[in-house]
# Entry
Amino acid sequence: MKIIGITGGVGAGKSSVLKYIKDNYNCVVVTADDIGNEVKEPGEECYERLITLLGRGILDTDGRIDKKKMAEAIFADEDRLNAVESIIHPAVIDRIRQKADMERSRGKVDYFFIEAALLIECGFNDYVDQMWYIYASQDVRRKRLKQSRGYDDSRIDGIMNSQLTDEAFKNGSDVVIDNGGDFEDTIRQIDEGLSKIQTGV
# Structure
């Protein structure tokens, strides 16, 4: 089983790439967002620590952590944000590695894909067999974010400025998939990349 990291800036189309891979290859796909939600569930390792840090006001009526309420509790407070990240990030990394180890021991899939914008910053280069950077120009990403999510320029600027530059993403990756044009071309690049892994080229 090969472990492949999928990273890239907001609006680059990582979800579309992963959907194609999931539909066409014998693989498991995990995303940092999904794992981040998982470790915040009642009984999971981050649940009580986040309540202790942020208060019970972040809970919904079912006693689960409400994403919007938690975001409001952190808003504009850098110390709180850093404290939350110091709780969630290590738990997410550990859980992803546990899932990958479990799939490797089962021996049922060819690939284990990990998707997260912060893979390079979190030191996953040493863990994955390959790091793939899903690239699209800033203009393309900006247009997508306006159309699909309704973001304005100010919000887009804020997110983009908080992420790695194209150069840093490329320097930290083994493969660059250009997802800025026709998706059929993206598919060709994905298939070529995985074919090279299979044949050991």
Notes: The chain has a mean pLDDT of 93. Residues 78-106 form the longest helix (29 residues).
